[in-house]
Design a protein that fits this description.
This protein has 289 residues and is mainly beta. It has one domain. The strands form three sheets. Strands 1, 3, 4, 5, 6, 11, 12, 16, 17, 19 and 20 form an eleven-stranded mixed β-sheet that branches. Strands 2-15-18-10-9-8-7 form a seven-stranded antiparallel β-sheet, with no helix packed on it. It has a two-stranded antiparallel ribbon with strand order 13-14. A hairpin with a 2-residue loop joins β8 and β9. The longest helix has 23 residues. The protein is globular and about 45 Å long.
Length: 289
C-alpha cells in the first residue's frame, strides 16, 4: 500500500462557523465506553514533523473531553479542491439508532466529526462521517488544537514517538501514557450500532506536526499542535462511519499555545523587505565603482 503524499490542489475554502444540528452522525450509546484499546482498535502508520514550534506554560493533566477542546479548528480537504473549515463547538444532544448522546465537534455540508462531550480522548473513539458525495473523496482531515488549548499526544516510548513498539515512558510534565493512534475494528460496539469501518489501518496515515514545549524548556518530542489523517485513495460517502482514536491533552486554563517565534506583523515585513532592498542596491553600487 502506498501512502498518499502531500497533495497540492487549487482550493476553494468554505469557512463554517455555525454549529448546525448533526443530521446523520453516528455516536456512542449513552453510558457505553468506546474504549480505544488494542482489543478494539488497530494502530495506524504515523509520521512526525517538527513543523512550526509552539509553546505553552503548563498542562491540565491527562484527561481531555470533547467539551475541553472547544475552539479547535478542523479542516476537511476534498478531491474536488473544496476545503471546509469549522470551529469545534457544542453539537448538543444527538440521536442514532434510538440512543441519545451529547457531543462536541463540527458539522456542515461536507459531513461531521464528533466526540463525546464528557468522554476522555484516551479511551474513546472520534466519529467521522461524510454527508455528501458532491465534493468527491475526502483526502485529508486536519485538526489544529491551538485555538482550543488542545495538544496531540503521541505514544511516547523509549524509542521516542512509536505507534507500535517500545516501552511507554513519561514525556512532557503533565502528559503520559498516550494510546496509539488507531482505527476501530469490528467489535461489540460497532456490531451494536450496525456499522463498521470500511477503511482499515493500512488505508490511513496519521501525521503529527508542530512540536510543542513548555515555556523555557526544549520540546520533549511527545506533544504536537496539529494532527492529520490522510486517506489512501480518499474516503467516499458510501464508505460508512469511520471511527479513529488519537490522544489529546489540554493547556492549563487561561494559558495559550503560541508559536515560539512570532510571525512578523505586515508592517514589520515591509520594513524588512525595504532594508534588504537597500542593502542589495548598496552592494550593486559598490560593484559598479
Amino acid at each position: 500500500m502506498t501512502i498518499m503524499p502531500t497533495i497540492t490542489l487549487c482550493l476553494t475554502v468554505h469557512t463554517e462557523t455555525r454549529m448546525p444540528t448533526v443530521r446523520s452522525l453516528l455516536a456512542p450509546l449513552i453510558g457505553s465506553a468506546l474504549l480505544a484499546s488494542s482489543a478494539q482498535g488497530q494502530s495506524i502508520a504515523t509520521q512526525y514533523e517538527t513543523g512550526t514550534a509552539y509553546t505553552t506554560t503548563s498542562l491540565t493533566g491527562f484527561s481531555t473531553s470533547g467539551a475541553a477542546m472547544a475552539g479547535m479548528l478542523v479542516t476537511a480537504r476534498f478531491a474536488s479542491g473544496d476545503v471546509f473549515q469549522g470551529t469545534w463547538g457544542n453539537l448538543g444532544t444527538q440521536v442514532y439508532g434510538g440512543a441519545s448522546f451529547s457531543a462536541y465537534g463540527v458539522s456542515g455540508l461536507w459531513g461531521s466529526l464528533a466526540f463525546p462531550t464528557a468522554g476522555d480522548s484516551n479511551d474513546n473513539f472520534w466519529f467521522l462521517r461524510l454527508a455528501s458525495g458532491d465534493y468527491g473523496a475526502l483526502l485529508e482531515l486536519t485538526l489544529n488544537g491551538a485555538p482550543g488549548r488542545t495538544l496531540f499526544d503521541c505514544r511516547f516510548t523509549t524509542n521516542g514517538c512509536d505507534n507500535f513498539a517500545g516501552t511507554l515512558v513519561n514525556g512532557t510534565p503533565g502528559s503520559s501514557g498516550a494510546i496509539a493512534a488507531q482505527v476501530a475494528t469490528t467489535n461489540q460496539f460497532l456490531a451494536q450500532i450496525g456499522s463498521h469501518n470500511l477503511f482499515d489501518a493500512s488505508d490511513v496515515l496519521g501525521v503529527y506536526s508542530n512540536s510543542v514545549s513548555l515555556t523555557g524548556n526544549p520540546p520533549v518530542g511527545d506533544l504536537f499542535e496539529q494532527f492529520s489523517l490522510r486517506f489512501d485513495g480518499g474516503m467516499t460517502v458510501d464508505q460508512g462511519l469511520f471511527l479513529f482514536a488519537v490522544d489529546t491533552d489540554n493547556a492549563a486554563v487561561g494559558a495559550v499555545i503560541v508559536p515560539t517565534t512570532p510571525v512578523p506583523e505586515p508592517s514589520s515585513l515591509v520594513l524588512l523587505v525595504g532594508a534588504f532592498s537597500g542593502l542589495a542596491m548598496a552592494a550593486r553600487r559598490r560593484r559598479v565603482v
